[in-house]
Write a structure and sequence with these properties.
Layout: H1 7-11, H2 31-35, E1 56-63, E2 73-80
Antiparallel strand pairs: 1-2
């Protein structure tokens, strides 16, 4: 992914985004994004490390799409939260 043109600049898009004050519009407005620390007690999501520290979210969801059937479907995926 890092070889794709514009990938690293996409990772930095959240640095210059508009702030809507008290409203929580996306993950960048949350307290975890603003206060999450790395192993050295420094902010993990900082402007200086925006293109090297990836925020990953692992999602798991299982559901049964049909009534009266013994079949379920599941999805497991990871998301890079730094990307727009």
């Amino acid at each position: 992914m890092y070889k794709d043109p514009g990938f690293e600049s996409s990772l930095r898009h959240w640095i210059n985004r508009s702030n809507f004050g008290e409203y929580l519009c996306d993950i960048y407005d949350g307290d975890i994004w603003k206060t999450f620390e790395d192993g050295n007690s420094e902010l993990f999501f900082s402007k200086e490390k925006a293109d090297s520290h990836l925020g990953l979210v692992l999602n798991i969801d299982w559901f049964q799409p049909y009534d009266n059937k013994r079949h379920s479907t599941g999805v497991i995926y990871a998301e890079i939260t730094n990307l727009p």
